[in-house]
Design brief:
A hairpin with a 5-residue loop joins strand 5 and strand 6. The protein contains one helix and eleven strands, in the order E-E-E-E-E-E-E-E-H-E-E-E. The chain has one domain: Aromatic compound dioxygenase (Protocatechuate 3,4-Dioxygenase, subunit A), CATH 2.60.130. The protein is globular. By secondary structure, it is mainly beta.
Length: 177
């Protein structure tokens, strides 16, 4: 009998060598001269035991402002030795949602890290944003405590912080996509 081995693909793991192709400039979405309200988005990645994940890859995607030669709409950053990630970007505005709805300003976030066989997808919303109340995706999360795992807090003017917990009691809401 012949055994078939299914190798792990790049979509299933970030691998130990991704730092070899890491480009630190990708964490600055304003690097090409984008204009708008410049903000910093930062946070920490924690594993199921609450330990800081110091080898994760965090990606953000945003459709507002629209992508252009000055604004790529995509960024990637590694967590540092302390498990922290940071991006410089333009604060997004509301965008069209499912049906005839409007989504609150947000960033799509993807996490790739050791121990994850598939990437994790979540969102970062901005605390106290009035449009959060009617956001069609955020409203799908009935439990307010769980919904709050997606709300970044402004720690000082223009700096938004969100910790992402991969598992455990404070686990961040992740989406199947």
């Amino acid at each position: 009998m012949q055994t078939t081995i299914n190798p792990t693909t790049t979509s299933q793991t970030i691998g130990p060598y991704w730092h070899l192709i890491e480009d630190k400039s990708w964490s600055d979405l304003t690097r090409f001269g984008a204009s708008g309200e410049v903000i910093t988005v930062e946070g920490n990645i924690r594993d199921g035991a609450g330990a800081l994940a110091n080898d994760a890859c965090v990606e953000i995607w945003q459709t507002s402002p629209a992508t252009s030669d000055a604004f790529p709409g995509f960024g990637r950053a590694a967590t540092d030795a302390a498990g922290k990630f940071s991006f410089k970007t333009i604060k997004p505005g509301p965008v069209a949602g499912p049906g005839n709805t409007l989504q609150a300003p947000h960033l799509a976030v993807t996490i790739l890290a050791r121990g994850l066989m598939f990437h994790l997808a979540t969102r970062l919303y901005f605390e106290n944003e009035p449009a959060n109340e009617n956001d069609p995706i955020l409203s799908l999360i009935a439990d307010k405590a769980r919904r709050n795992t997606l709300l970044a807090r402004e720690t000082k003017p223009g700096v938004w912080h969100l910790d992402i917990h991969l598992q455990g009691e404070a686990e961040t809401v992740f989406f199947d996509i």
